[in-house]
C-alpha cells in the first residue's frame, strides 16, 4: 500500500521520480525481529523505485529481513542518522586527539532539547537507539570507545533549539591530565535542512548514473553510515568531494553528447 501511495504521488505531480528521505522521530530498535514503521517505509520506497535516505537512527533498511530487497532493487540508498551537532563536533575532535597522541580517558555528554525530538527521545529505548550512533563515532575515530555516556533530556521550553555539552578527560605529555569542555547551541531544523537537500540531490544523481546499493561516500552526513568509509570528518569530506566530482563529470559528459 505504501509503495502504491508513493507511485501515485509521483504520477499526480507529474514527476520523473522521487527520493524518499526519512526524517521522522526516532523509534526504538525492534526487539522481536518484526519490521518497525521505518523499515516498512524503506521497503515501500525501494518497491516504488525510489532511492532511500535514512536521516534518523531508526532501523530503516538496517533490518536483516530487507537485505535481499535492498540488494535486488538496483537502487542507491544512504544513512543513517544525520550528523548535525554534537556528533559533528566529535568527529572533528576525535581525530585531533588521536593525531596529537592525547589519550582520551573519558568522554561524557549531555543533550538538552525540546520539540518533537525531545519528546520522542524521552523514551529510553529511543534514546538508546540515538546514542548508539554517537558512541560509534568515538569508537571509530579513537580506535576504542572511552568511558562515559551521553544523556538526553527533554526540555520542552527549548523548542527546536538544542544545547549539547561534552566533557572530555585526556592525558597529555608524561601523563599530564587535562580537560576539554565544549558547548554546542544550535537550531536542529536549520542544521539538518541543507543536509537533507544535499542528500536528495546526490541520491537522484547516483540513480541517474546507475549506482546501486549503499552509498558509503555519503558518510560525511551521518553518524552511523552504511557501507565502508573513513570515520574522520576531514577524510569523509574528501571522499564526498571525489564522489560529487564523479557525478558532475558524468552529468557534463551526458549533456555534451545530447
From TrEMBL:
InterPro entries: Myo-inos-1-P_Synthase, Myo-inos-1-P_Synthase_GAPDH, NAD(P)-bd_dom_sf. One of its GO terms (biological process) is phospholipid biosynthetic process. Pfam families: Inos-1-P_synth, NAD_binding_5. Residues 85-189 form the Myo-inositol-1-phosphate synthase GAPDH-like domain. Belongs to the myo-inositol 1-phosphate synthase family. This is Inositol-3-phosphate synthase. It comes from the Bacteria. Transmembrane segments: none annotated. PANTHER family: MYO-INOSITOL-1 PHOSPHATE SYNTHASE. One of its GO terms (molecular function) is inositol-3-phosphate synthase activity.
Amino acid at each position: 500500500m505504501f509503495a502504491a501511495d508513493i507511485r501515485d504521488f509521483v504520477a499526480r505531480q507529474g514527476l520523473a521520480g522521487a527520493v524518499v528521505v526519512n526524517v521522522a522521530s526516532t523509534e526504538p530498535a525492534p526487539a522481536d525481529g518484526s519490521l518497525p514503521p521505518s523499515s516498512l517505509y524503506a521497503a515501500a520506497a525501494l518497491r516504488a523505485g525510489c532511492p532511500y535516505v535514512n536521516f534518523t537512527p531508526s532501523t530503516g533498511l538496517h533490518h536483516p529481513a530487507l537485505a535481499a530487497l535492498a540488494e535486488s532493487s538496483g537502487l542507491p540508498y544512504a544513512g543513517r542518522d544525520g550528523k548535525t551537532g554534537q556528533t559533528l563536533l566529535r568527529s572533528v575532535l576525535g581525530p585531533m586527539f588521536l593525531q596529537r597522541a592525547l589519550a582520551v580517558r573519558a568522554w561524557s555528554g549531555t543533550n538538552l532539547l525540546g520539540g518533537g525530538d525531545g519528546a520522542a527521545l524521552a523514551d529510553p529505548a529511543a534514546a538508546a537507539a540515538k546514542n548508539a550512533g554517537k558512541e560509534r563515532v568515538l569508537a571509530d575515530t579513537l580506535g576504542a570507545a572511552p568511558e562515559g555516556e551521553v544523556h538526553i533530556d527533554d526540555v520542552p521550553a527549548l523548542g527546536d533549539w538544542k544545547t549539547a555539552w561534552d566533557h572530555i578527560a585526556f592525558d597529555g605529555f608524561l601523563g599530564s591530565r587535562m580537560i576539554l569542555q565544549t558547548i554546542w547551541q544550535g537550531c536542529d531544523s536549520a542544521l539538518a535542512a541543507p543536509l537533507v537537500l544535499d542528500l536528495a540531490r546526490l541520491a537522484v544523481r547516483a540513480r541517474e548514473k546507475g549506482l546501486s546499493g549503499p552509498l558509503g561516500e555519503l558518510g560525511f552526513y551521518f553518524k552511523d553510515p552504511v557501507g565502508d568509509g573513513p570515520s574522520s570528518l576531514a577524510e569523509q569530506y574528501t571522499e564526498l568531494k571525489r564522489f560529487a566530482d564523479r557525478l558532475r563529470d558524468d552529468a557534463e559528459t551526458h549533456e555534451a553528447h545530447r
